[in-house]
Design brief:
Blueprint: E1 7-10, E2 23-29, E3 34-41, E4 47-53, E5 72-78, E6 84-90, E7 96-103, E8 109-115, E9 130-136, E10 142-148, E11 154-155, E12 169-171, E13 177-183, E14 200-206, E15 212-218, E16 224-231, E17 237-243, E18 258-264, E19 270-276, E20 282-289, E21 295-301, E22 319-325, E23 331-337, E24 343-350, E25 356-362, E26 377-383, E27 389-395, E28 404-408, E29 414-421, E30 435-441, E31 447-453, E32 459-466, E33 472-478, E34 495-500, H1 507-512, E35 516-519, E36 525-529, E37 537-543, E38 548-554, E39 558-562, E40 569-577, E41 580-588
Parallel strand pairs: 1-27
Antiparallel strand pairs: 2-34, 3-4, 4-5, 5-6, 7-8, 8-9, 9-10, 11-13, 12-13, 13-14, 14-15, 16-17, 17-18, 18-19, 20-21, 21-22, 22-23, 24-25, 25-26, 26-27, 28-29, 29-30, 30-31, 32-33, 33-34, 35-36, 36-39, 37-38, 37-40, 40-41
């Protein structure tokens, strides 16, 4: 039986909204002829950004002119107060395109992109288009670079482009780098290709210095692609994508395009694989691990047979599809979501209680989306541990409202960024062509705040990120010189970086209360004391990836946090007391 415990549809109501976070600081950097792609928030409040530049810009060093498509990757760092600390163009005389960037446990970043160059910063180019991996230190030093591929083309699968690029890069538990890409080569670094000219899924593992540990071509004789990757607690790598092949590594293929999930050991051995779907098409967009050691993925299906036994569509119309798998790839449960029009599940987040938040793009106005007005809009659904809908909330005004890069929070809520909210819909006329629209919701689906950022011309959001303490930052393009951008000169910039929430750490205020943090000699415990504390304080310890490792609440003036069992390395202790926040770097020996 299909039913909703709660359903709420929310419309964008304008620029000011109750309890929305203020702009902490904002910066316009770069110049014309480029774009920003990615942000990495660091524990100290600084940001490392990634983009692409097409021409030499004042202040950007290292640009490589020449060639038919002379674009370079562009890397920069902003301080916790928004000061530009360093920036660097990297590449060669041909095309470099930035795609994704991740933080590493040593405080640096690794960047994944593509290159056509065989000069400048690029060494070891194989031919045509290679994958290019680059590592920078937090201080802006180029530590290593690596061109990967063969004589044909290596690339990232970016479907669906309107939603997000998926996960193609991650740091593994052993501080290595896992890369998920695609190849049409059968030489160079590429070993074990399945009959070109079809494209294989290509999974590559490197060590922390960029050395190639192993690579694996996955798929069959047709075109195969993957868009999401996770590492399990045991160190295995699991990828999800879509396969047109019914041979090679793929067994159990149902027809046309199936969702395909493959699990590989830390050494690159294929442990198991599973084709999911029916006689028509399936696409996988996102994948994550679950608290019980399983996996849950989301995507879409047009089938009404095979594994798809609760289809809403009658064939050739996309249903959103969520599938829960056990640790060995067996189906635990599956659920079609949506209505009688097109529906796509683009992001999924598994919560500690086994429930799941699913983000959907929908044009339906019936069944699970009953009561929605016509048009394209976003939905957030909560599914319980068995796949039943707990609640559903719709957002938008029908003007192609497709959120990107959601920030999922530890409290079960999330913040979504809509790259553009157009005036003439539900935004007031002073927003001209468009503005960046953010919506925050709690774990029960209630809207906490919504806000549009920009001016009277045109702004477009690219990437939204968050810190564990709730602060946010996004990148975008700007054309306005009024509204939120009134303090900047009338010029075009490559990138607009905007931080939300009070970026002031509150350290001075806490120090007035004589905050004392002491680590014992063995490094096994922290003692936190606030002698004048009135009320309570929250204590949170995060690793360098922003993952919560310990939490506690001070009911009195002091507390002890047990650090035993933590891996050696750097952590950030966050103390929140009396509306001020203090962050302290902690090293566990």
């Amino acid at each position: 039986m299909r039913w909703l415990l709660a359903s709420l549809f929310v419309m964008c109501t304008g620029h000011f909204s109750a309890q929305s976070p203020p702009i902490g600081w904002q910066a316009l950097i770069g110049g014309s002829g480029g774009q920003g792609e990615w942000l990495v928030p660091l524990p100290d409040g600084s940001l490392i950004g990634l983009g692409t530049v097409e021409t030499s810009q004042p202040g950007i060093t290292g640009y490589h002119p020449g060639g038919k498509i002379p674009t370079d990757m562009w890397v920069f760092k902003l301080s916790p107060d928004g000061e530009l600390l360093w920036e660097q163009a990297i590449g060669g005389s041909e095309m470099e395109q930035a795609y994704q960037m991740i933080p590493t446990s040593d405080g640096g970043v690794v960047i994944a992109g593509q290159t056509r160059s065989s000069d400048g910063d690029v060494t070891g180019h194989h031919g045509n288009v290679d994958i290019w991996l680059v590592k920078f230190s937090g201080g802006g030093q180029l530590l290593w670079e690596r061109a990967l591929g063969g004589s044909e083309e290596e690339f990232f699968y970016l479907f669906p482009q309107n939603y997000e690029m998926g996960v193609h890069l991650l740091e593994t538990q052993d501080q290595g780098i896992a890369l998920l890409a695609h190849t049409s080569s059968a030489d160079g670094d590429v070993v074990g290709a399945h009959s070109p000219p079809g494209t294989d899924i290509w999974l590559v593992k490197l060590d922390s210095d960029g050395g190639l540990l192993w690579q694996r071509c996955l798929g069959g004789s047709s075109d195969d692609r993957a868009n999401a990757m996770v590492e399990t607690a045991s160190g295995a790598l699991v990828l999800a994508g879509s396969v047109g092949s019914a041979d090679g590594d793929v067994t159990g293929h149902h027809g046309q395009w199936d969702i395909w999930v493959a699990c590989l050991s830390a050494g690159g051995e294929l442990l198991w694989q599973r084709a999911l779907g029916g006689s028509l098409d399936e696409q996988a967009y996102d994948l994550t691990t679950t608290a019980d050691g399983g996996l849950v993925l989301c995507g879409s299906t047009t089938s009404t047979d095979g594994d798809v036994d609760d289809a809403i569509n009658t064939g050739n119309i996309w249903d959103a599809w969520v599938v829960k798998l056990t640790a060995d790839g067996s189906i635990d449960w599956k659920r079609c979501l949506g209505g009688t029009q097109g529906d796509y599940a683009t992001h999924i987040h598994s919560r500690p209680d086994g429930s799941n938040l699913v983000l959907l793009i929908s044009t339906s106005t019936d069944i699970d989306m009953a009561g929605a007005p016509p048009g394209i809009r976003a939905w957030v659904m909560s599914l319980d541990a068995t796949g039943e809908i707990e609640w559903a909330t719709g957002y938008g005004n029908g003007a192609e409202d497709s959120p990107v890069h959601p920030v999922f929070r530890a409290d079960g809520g999330c913040v979504m960024m809509f790259p553009i909210a157009a005036a003439g819909d539900d935004l007031p006329p002073e927003f001209g062509t468009g503005a960046v629209w953010l919506v925050s919701m709690d774990g029960a689906g209630n809207v906490e705040w919504q806000h549009s950022y920009g001016g009277s011309s045109f702004e477009w959001g690219h990437h939204l990120v968050g810190w564990p303490d709730g602060r946010l930052a996004f990148t975008g393009h700007n054309q306005s010189t009024d509204g939120d951008l009134a303090s900047f000169p009338p010029d075009h910039y490559t990138l607009w970086v905007c931080t939300l929430g009070d970026m002031h750490t509150g350290a001075e205020d806490v120090e007035e209360q004589h905050l004392i943090i002491v680590q014992d000699m063995t490094g096994a415990a922290l003692r936190i004391t606030i002698p004048r504390l009135l009320g309570s304080a929250e204590l949170s310890l995060y690793d360098t990836h922003g993952r919560l490792q310990r939490s506690d609440r001070m009911a009195g003036t002091d507390a002890t946090m047990d650090l035993r069992g933590l891996a050696s390395g750097a952590y950030v202790l966050v103390v929140r007391a009396q509306e001020v926040t203090h962050r302290q770097r902690i090293v566990v020996p």
